[in-house]
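@channel sequence for tomorrow's demo:
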Amino acid sequence: MIRLLAALATVPLLAACQADSSAAAGPYAAEVAKAIPMVEKATGLKFKTAPKVQARTKDELRAFLESKFDEDQPALELASQERAYKLFGVLPDTLKLRPFLLSLLAEQVIGYYDPATKVLYVVSGGSGASVPPPDVLSVTITHELVHALQDQYLPLDSIAKIHGDNDRSMAAQAVIEGGATYEQLSAMLGGGNMFSRMPGGWDRVRQTIRDSQGTMPVFSTAPLFIQETLLFPYLSGAEFIRQFKDKRPGQSSLAALPVSTEQVMHPEKLLEKVDLPITVTLPRPTGATVSYENGLGEFETRLVLHQQLNDVASASRGATGWGGDRYMIVTTPQGAGLVWFTVWDTPFDGAEFLSLMSQAIEKRLDLKDGAGGAGATLRYSGKGRSVELVAVTVQGHAAVMYTDVPAGARTRLIDPAKVKLAGIK
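structure tokens (generated this afternoon):
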């Protein structure tokens, strides 16, 4: 998962009419005092202690966030994720992920609630920099106050440091950021079912969030994968919160965190009939060493398909029915490779993914339709790579094994019969 620490400047135009122009002593004391009761009303939760607020120049806040960025996303892990995403074909080979994410962070920094210090930091003037407009400040303070309130009921600092389980981390982040986005809007628009009173309703809110990000120069140049990964917690997370409130009125969404992006994208899989992901454990490869392991989840699986197919409907169809997955970056004598094992709810879901993934491979390697052959094992060669797709059944579940290695390297690196599944549905 690719993530930034700073809050996105979400829908300032919706908050403009609510901006507080009153002055008070202390950093943004009037704005904070006005927002706290609105946030408590929207969330149904009370602050256990008053949040601390400190003003910082943009340079000071950016330096602080860069240090937090390195703490929450260790350099080695971020470098491994970068390599994995490049092997999946969702990031260009020329992109340097860390400096690009830091440039995004610098572009978006306005305010940040730090769970470690329990302080809400907000940009002030200084060094020739101007204070952000009142409407943007109002949105940011309200959004970050929701995070401060969440932190009094959830260990936000621990959640931010989940490693090795990308899908679970992204799902939790979606509820945290989506909750802050939804409750911020609810607080500023008077609470209740406010979206039903707005022209265009929730669809307008989603589009406004996208449009506000598209006006940011660095964000607008980001690859599709980065854009969608950064927007997911705010858009899909807020939609999850909206449906949670509809189906479980009076309950706090913090009491039922989703454990997969599948549950975020399909709230009924948590709010109605619980559908937990299958845990996939891969055996050690033959003739290669493992340098990194993680999983994609349904959302990033959809993005992998979308990157090559450029078709939202096909990508969605191909990722639907995801049951669990695990990938590992391997080092072969010929260079870096990737083994990805996906498990599916039904044989039909597995066959759908196999078909669309084969099309994605053909497009990525500039091959003709059907270049991989036919049957349960498909093989492709192009652009210096050897790729293999294999449909298998493991512990009664349909699965697909994807291997991408340098040309000349062995493609059958693991025995699918040795893959272990836990939490089988």
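heads up for whoever presents: The radius of gyration is 23 Å.
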